[in-house]
Amino acid sequence: MLKKSIMMSVALAVVMLSGPQAASFSKEKQHPVREMVKRLELGKPVSHGNLTIIPIHMDRVLDGTSYSTLEDALEKGWITMTEVEGGRVPQVKISNTSRHLIFLMGGEILTGCRQDRILAGDVLLAPGTKDLLVPVYCVEHGRWNQTTGHFYSKQNLGTPALRAKAQEKSPAAQREIWASIAEQNRKLGVTSASDAFQQAFENEENRALIQKVEKRLIDIPRLHADTVGVVIGLNGRMVSVDIFANPGLFAKQWPKILRSSALSSIERTKGGTLSRDEAVEFLRSLMDRKYRSKTGLDLGFEYSSADTDANIQALAYEERVVHLAGFPQEKARLKVIRDWTAETYEE
């Protein structure tokens, strides 16, 4: 059982963090990421073509908060998202005009204004937050003209590869994101005058292929009431892991995760099924990693662990993880991480 294996890793994690270097990293006691991972179990893999989905279940939900999502907030008029005055590529301005907690997921696509953007990381907006400057990357290289006064959502998420680039927050990330979009569009035969990532979803042929995948796999959250996340595999290789605070929040974000994963799957022709054992080992490794922490952009704390094996980012609120996003990395490539704000470490 995955749960049993993870529990055995707790003692190892304590030993690893008990030396003099431990002061630079988050405390082992009640560490939000480890407290969550201890309660996870993997379900049965489900595959369609070269895409594998492995559900993640939680034996006891630690956070039952009803978080509002980007789509919730837009539908009810609780959020405004605009350009910074004059326009600024790496930042947008966001306000929460409601009395509700609004969760924005790293990798969500904001459409409109001067150019489409992708959120660089998770943000939890406090009720009444005004004019928060949020880090983003451009996903529409060829446009810099105002089309709308506010950003809106077409309910799309960046592909796992694009989300991983955005989450790096490295000096080279913007250039690599543009290159990744151009290469993806070329492989998919997508033509876009503004080099827009969104165009890949809007292409008629792509949309039909994506809908086939969605029809086959969309019901994964409904298979078990305790599903809180998924491991995604392409061509037998793990590409992403998403774990949420509770089944309700996961169910809201699942359609976006599936749609972006489906887009990635149609640009690759090889088959292969991701091994459940590989997914188990990856989740177990989350127990043993060292995590740096810093204050969140608005509410909560961000926990990060990035090296040549993986890039892990988690947002926690009141000592409970709201969302964790993990992306296995190519070991041969050294990742250079740059924070948007100064880091502060717990002692």
Structure description:
The protein is an alpha+beta fold and 347 residues long. It folds into two domains: 2-64 and 207-328, no CATH class; 68-203, no CATH class. It contains ten helices and 18 strands. The strands form three sheets. Strands 1, 2, 3, 13, 14, 15, 16, 17 and 18 form a nine-stranded antiparallel beta sheet that branches. It has a six-stranded antiparallel beta sheet with strand order 5-6-11-9-8-12. A hairpin with a 2-residue loop joins strand 13 (227-234) and strand 14 (237-244). It is globular. Residues 1-28 and 332-347 have low confidence and may be disordered.
Rg over CA atoms, rounded to whole Å, is: 19 Å
Q: Main β-sheet: number of strands, strand sense, barrel status?
A: 9 strands, antiparallel
Q: What number is the mean pLDDT? A: 87
**Number of beta-strand segments:** 18
Net shape: globular
Number of domains: 2
Question: What class would the helix/strand composition place it in?
Answer: alpha+beta
Number of helices: 10
User: Which spans have pLDDT < 50 for at least 5 consecutive residues?
Assistant: 1-28, 332-347
Order of helices and strands: HHEEEEHEEEEEEEEHHHHHEEHHEEEE
Terminus-to-terminus distance: 34 Å
Strand content: 25-35%
Helix content: 25-40%
Q: How do the helices and strands line up, and which of them pair or pack?
A:
Elements: H1 2-16, H2 32-37, E1 40-42, E2 46-48, E3 51-58, E4 68-69, H3 70-76, E5 79-83, E6 91-96, E7 102-104, E8 109-112, E9 117-119, E10 123-125, E11 132-138, E12 151-152, H4 160-168, H5 173-188, H6 199-202, H7 204-217, H8 220-223, E13 227-234, E14 237-244, H9 247-266, H10 276-288, E15 292-295, E16 301-306, E17 310-317, E18 320-328
Parallel strand pairs: 4-7
Antiparallel strand pairs: 1-3, 2-3, 3-13, 5-6, 6-11, 7-10, 8-9, 8-12, 9-11, 13-14, 14-18, 15-16, 16-17, 17-18
Helix pairs in contact: 1-10, 4-5, 7-9
